[in-house]
Amino acid sequence: MASEPVDVVLSFGGRPPTRERADAARNRLKVLVAAEKLFASANATDVTMEDIAREAGVGRATLYRRYPDPVSIAQALLGEHETELQQRILFGPPPLGPGGEPADRLSAFYGAMVDLLERHLHLVLGAETGRARFRTGVYGFWRKHVEVLVRASRIDAPASAVDVLMAPLAPELYEYQRGLGLTPAEIAEGLRWLATRTLTPPPVNGLRPH
């Protein structure tokens, strides 16, 4: 039985886009470029608003007018990449998009998330670590997607299984695994193993259900 599509509408907060003044647009770009550089070159959790303002060459008042903290800046940088992945989950071809079996879709989701973490770990560490991870709208989307796949798999799983399946995607864990020398392919393979073992229904009379 193919899994149902995820029907989730996310709000990332903030106000509807308005026309920017030219100087505000320039300052925003300088802030994002500076923050990207700092997050990539240092421990993302150690980057401060003062560091970003200094690197961008803007006043702290200018910085705080748009962003309350470094996490919000990292989230702005990440937003485009995460939105693209959401669109692929909602509307793209299987196995990542609708139409595949739950175990296959979860495996594809894990693979896509490993790719995202590998390319943008410095941003994810700045935006989605600790308790901040659970407060982001995008985390709610990922979690709902996994919840729908668990439900569609027809396995007898407790409600907490969703969080168990989300836990391996913590950016701190990915950073630790890479530090151990595991490659992205090896990490993805372990996650595919988890998806297959968890969401593949047990055989009935020796036959797996279709």
Brief summary:
The protein is built from ten helices and no strands. By secondary structure, the chain is mainly α.
Defining traits:
2 domains, 64% helix, elongated, mainly alpha, disordered N terminus, single chain, Arc Repressor Mutant, subunit A, 210 residues, 10 helices
What is the element layout, followed by pairings?
Blueprint: H1 22-41, H2 49-56, H3 60-66, H4 70-91, H5 102-127, H6 132-135, H7 137-152, H8 161-166, H9 171-179, H10 184-199
Question: Could you describe the 3D structure shown?
Answer:
- The protein has 210 residues and is mainly alpha-helical.
- The chain has 2 domains: 22-68, Orthogonal Bundle (Arc Repressor Mutant, subunit A); 71-199.
- It has helices at 22-41, 49-56, 60-66, 70-91, 102-127, 132-135, 137-152, 161-166, 171-179, 184-199.
- Helix 4 packs antiparallel against helix 5, helix 5 packs antiparallel against helix 7 and helix 5 (102-127) packs across helix 10.
- 30% of the residues are buried.
